[in-house]
Amino acid sequence: MKHSLKVILSGVVLGIVLLVLTNVLHIDERAFLSVYWKLGLALILLVAIVNTGYYFYKLRQLKPVMALYEGGDYKKFVDELENLISGTRNKYLQNIMKLNLGAGYLDLNQPAKLVDLYESMDVNYLKNKNLKLVYRLNLAIAYFKLEDLPSFDRIFKANEVFFASFEEHATYGESVGQLYLMEEISEGHFDRARERLTTLRGNSKKPKMMNTYNQLEGILNEKAARFRKDAN
User: What CA–CA distance (Å, rounded) separates 224 from 80?
Assistant: First the structure.
């Protein structure tokens, strides 16, 4: 939106300048309009080329940083990405990078940092359905890890239908399954949660997820033990 306004304002300024020159130099109106449209089109093309070039330049910078995440070097990933974000002026790219940065915070077990980061984001830039999922999913997980169950439940219930549409998704289905597991723990449905945990763990093909399931099992056991103690 801001880029569009800049182009429009530049076109207006260009028009005013040409109009002044037309009056001063007594240029024919048809000649003025021809020059105006040609220069206006050239300006739009120039802005588009510059923005596209900047976009791909930043994507090239992001690629080796993302490789750090894939390699499990989460601390270096976070440090490098924080620096990259601070030097990025494109708001759309900033938000994409912040989504990925949040994942790094989760893997470093820093959910409070994710909440602060995500709550400060402009979600209007997240037009893509998958981007919206990553945002809502990571934010819900962070609240669960912080034991802020009211906030977790608020996000889950507000997006339950949306999350359900990704249950069979090749990339995000397992993470959504973990979210349902967290909801069952949050609601005190421990037997159901244990069954889901066994199923998810048995079906998982990602070694990295085993640590996640171990953590969830620990939380489940702790919550169930606390519930039994309170019941007695």
Answer: 40
Q: For residue range 12-60, list pLDDT tens digits in order.
A: 444 444 445 455 545 455 654 565 456 566 656 656 665 677 667 788 8
Query: Is residue 20 a contact partner of residue 36, using CB atoms and an 8 Å limit?
Result: no
Residue 232: which H helix or E strand, with range?
A: none
Ordered DSSP codes for 136-158: HHHHHHHHHHTT-HHHHHHHHHH
Prediction pTM value: 0.78
Strand, coil or helix: 8 = helix
What pLDDT is attached to residue 7?
A: 42
Number of alpha carbons in the 13 Å side-chain half-sphere of residue 70: 6
Q: How many helices (H) and strands (E) does the chain have?
A: 11, 0
Is residue 131 within 8 Å of residue 100, measured between CB atoms? no
